[in-house]
Amino acid sequence: MADNIIKTKSFNFALRIIKLFQFLKDDKKEYVLSKQLLRSGTAIGALIRESEQAESKKDFIHKLAIAQKEANETDYWLELLFQSNYLNENQFQSIKSDIVEINKILASIIITSKQKLNTT
């Protein structure tokens, strides 16, 4: 059985977010933005996991659409942390590439799922 790419990538991303949260909290003494980042960044994978147990194709699409919204929010918090100098360029670019990739994969799955739903 093939690996579920989005499931794996979102889980690994959540682990990175947890480590980044710990760094921001312990080293940078930043508590508010980092908590928002932790919440949205870990919600992505949780929603993807939840979509595996969707009650219908529409429910599956809906859960992934919420995961995509959380990914967009996570991207916002990362940008804010970078622009406010809590993250340096290397830290930001490293994790930014991950969230961009996750967003692209989610968009592709949602589009494909909607197309399949409309043809059945």
TrEMBL record:
InterPro entries: 23S_rRNA-intervening_sequence (IPR012657), 23S_rRNA_IVS_sf (IPR036583). Gene3D superfamilies: 23S rRNA-intervening sequence. Transmembrane segments: none annotated. It comes from the Bacteria. This is Four helix bundle protein. It comes from Flavobacterium calami.
